[in-house]
Task: inverse folding
């Protein structure tokens, strides 16, 4: 990682290798601004499909329109502020854990009905465990099986949740 | 109904075997999960919420309250033993508590925390019983305009008293308000922001937002920098503090209780602000401030009492006004709505058994906390040794099953994944999830009150400044904002949270 901190340099290079003009002194503020403007704009545009109504009888679009404008203004303020003052750089994203935790949860939601509790828990534990730097196959597999047994006992037999143990796809 | 009769009704409700059982179960489960490193009270409650949906309303709330202070106490245990505060309120406990543990006085530190919390909890419960009814009576006279302004004050105050960037916190509130509006519009039935997903017609469940942002988001954040903390103390001995310790902790407990009770009522992370303020205060009044940070028992006794008192009194605005002052209270309000109770001042008059039962159960719960924790310390220590790479997949499994079981919907599990990633990314930008959670719960209520106020006023926006109570509240909100932006106050505000770094 290059950290050009000496004055006079025009660009700083972040860990991801993207270059950022030095006029943005506070990247966290800048991206916060962009995020708020983005969310605000999305809500604003969707709200325009609904009737606005009047102050006297507000339609479904009225309050969201006000709020989304406020959010865009706040975003703008944050973005402008990022050109002044100082802030630490945005770096060190945990991309692998983020992707794996996301994937594991989505797969669980996708599979629980058809594959059943045992299979989806084993997948969830295996995939998410892989996100850790301390991952070890045998240990993760043991944990996965233990969790599957425990959850079937507690949630299906104990609390009677209507979740199939072995799903229809696996012939359950 | 006078106080004695009310409390008697509360005892009748809280002391039934079934409610005692749920109170005990809540405290036990809360401590059990709260003691696990990296899990704060908000995540703990979000994870256990689905389990309470099937209970009757009173038992559910009693159990949730138990989970809350159990989780908070569990967090202190983690802070003292491995210097890893589960949530911001126990950050300062770690400063001196961990040092005490290093000097072999972990037992005394834990006992101090338990006794201080119990004393503070008892006092705060009485304050709650005394002040809640008159406050609710005032609030009953509020119209929609007053309510709208009250929510504005609540939200503004919650950012002013929290730490971090003001602008970002306000932005997160507004984003939360918007997310709260997703789903069918109450008045016209029109689906808003559902992107065509029928699953979103009922809106996004608050359980999903909390579990995603506080649970999954936190997991990803913890995996960013994964180094295991060594557990210092395998066996905790010498639980009983010495006479000298008792003498030292008495005054800090009293001061912490008073400070915490007062600050807890204010919106905005009652427990956290209380513990920070108490720590600075103890350091200031101490004749030997140099001992702080090196294992001073006052530095544990004061903040621990203050954060428990603050946690307890933050129920006052929640139960009487229906306004959450922190994310945990936002979850409580969500749980009440699920149980079919409309949060607000009418709870006391319409559901007296529920209101007083919950209050009395808090005191009982605090008692359980002491009885439970001192003998079970050994078990908590063993839990602490559970490494994070085994812990987080377990948390994920319970979160996924919990959220799936609410509606039997796989879609809800996708949503927690999305909110987890969103929460993580926003936290990288130093945007905290707490204000978003408050906004999320208040979004629909604010819209409803805004609409009703303007229908009554025939579309005249000046109604918010011409009605005196509403105007007064808006003035308070503006003053709070102006004050916090003024340079000198800004400096003090930053100084108040400096212990963190």
Result:
């Amino acid at each position: 990682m290059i950290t050009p901190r000496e004055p006079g340099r025009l660009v700083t290079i972040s860990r991801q290798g993207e270059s950022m003009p030095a006029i943005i002194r506070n990247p966290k503020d800048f991206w916060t601004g962009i995020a708020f403007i983005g969310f605000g704009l999305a809500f604003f545009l969707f709200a325009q499909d609904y009737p606005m109504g009047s102050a006297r009888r507000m339609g479904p679009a009225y309050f969201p329109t006000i709020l989304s404008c406020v959010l865009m203004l706040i975003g703008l303020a944050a973005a402008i502020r990022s050109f002044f003052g100082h802030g630490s750089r945005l770096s060190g994203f945990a991309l692998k854990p983020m992707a794996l935790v996301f994937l594991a949860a989505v797969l669980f939601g996708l599979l629980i009905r058809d594959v059943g509790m045992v299979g989806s828990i084993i997948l969830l534990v295996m995939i998410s465990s892989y996100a850790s730097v301390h991952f070890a196959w045998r240990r993760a597999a043991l944990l996965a099986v233990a969790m599957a047994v425990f959850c079937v006992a507690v949630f299906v037999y104990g609390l009677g949740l209507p979740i199939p143990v072995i799903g229809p796809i696996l012939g359950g | 109904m006078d106080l004695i009769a009310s409390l008697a009704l509360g005892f009748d409700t809280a002391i039934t075997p079934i409610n005692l059982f749920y109170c005990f179960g809540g405290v036990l489960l809360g401590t059990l999960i709260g003691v696990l490193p990296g899990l704060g009270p908000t995540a703990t409650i979000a994870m256990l919420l689905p389990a309470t949906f099937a209970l009757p309303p009173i038992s559910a709330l009693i159990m949730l309250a138990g989970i809350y202070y159990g989780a908070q106490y569990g967090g202190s245990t983690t802070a003292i033993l491995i210097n890893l505060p589960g949530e911001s309120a126990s950050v300062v406990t770690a400063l001196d508590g961990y040092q005490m543990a290093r000097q072999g006085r972990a037992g005394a530190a834990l006992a101090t925390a338990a006794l201080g919390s119990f004393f503070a909890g008892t006092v705060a419960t009485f304050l709650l019983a005394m002040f809640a009814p008159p406050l609710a009576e005032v609030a009953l006279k509020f119209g929609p305009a007053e309510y709208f302004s009250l929510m504005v004050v609540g939200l503004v105050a919650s950012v002013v008293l929290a730490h971090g960037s003001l602008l970002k916190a306000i932005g997160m509130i507004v984003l939360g308000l918007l997310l709260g509006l997703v789903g069918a519009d109450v008045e016209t039935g029109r689906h808003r922001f559902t992107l065509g997903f029928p699953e979103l017609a009922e809106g996004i469940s608050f359980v999903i937002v909390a579990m995603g942002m506080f649970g999954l988001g936190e997991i990803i954040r913890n995996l960013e920098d994964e180094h295991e903390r060594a557990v210092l103390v395998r066996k905790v001995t010498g639980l009983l503090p010495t006479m000298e310790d008792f003498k030292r902790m008495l005054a800090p407990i009293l001061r912490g209780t008073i400070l915490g009770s007062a600050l807890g009522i204010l919106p905005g992370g009652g427990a956290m602000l209380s513990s920070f303020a108490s720590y600075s205060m103890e350091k200031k009044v101490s004749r030997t401030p140099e001992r702080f940070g090196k294992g001073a028992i006052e530095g544990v006794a004061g903040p621990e009492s203050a954060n428990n008192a603050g946690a307890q009194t933050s129920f006052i605005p929640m139960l009487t006004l229906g306004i959450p002052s922190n994310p945990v209270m936002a979850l409580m309000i969500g749980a009440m709505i699920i149980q079919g109770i409309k949060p607000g001042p009418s709870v006391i008059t319409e559901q007296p058994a529920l209101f007083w039962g919950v209050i009395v159960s808090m005191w009982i719960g605090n008692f359980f906390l002491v009885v439970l924790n001192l003998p079970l310390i050994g078990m908590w220590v063993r839990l602490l040794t559970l490494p994070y790479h085994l812990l987080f997949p377990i948390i994920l499994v319970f979160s996924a099953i919990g959220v799936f079981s609410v509606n039997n919907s796989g879609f809800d599990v996708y949503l927690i994944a999305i909110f987890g990633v969103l929460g993580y990314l926003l936290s990288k930008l130093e945007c905290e999830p707490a204000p978003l959670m408050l906004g999320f719960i208040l979004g629909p209520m604010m819209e409803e009150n805004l609409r009703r106020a303007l229908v009554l006023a025939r579309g005249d926006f000046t109604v918010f400044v011409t009605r005196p109570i509403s105007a007064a509240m808006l003035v308070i909100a503006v003053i709070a904002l102006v004050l916090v932006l003024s340079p000198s106050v800004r400096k003090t505000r930053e100084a108040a949270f400096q212990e963190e770094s």
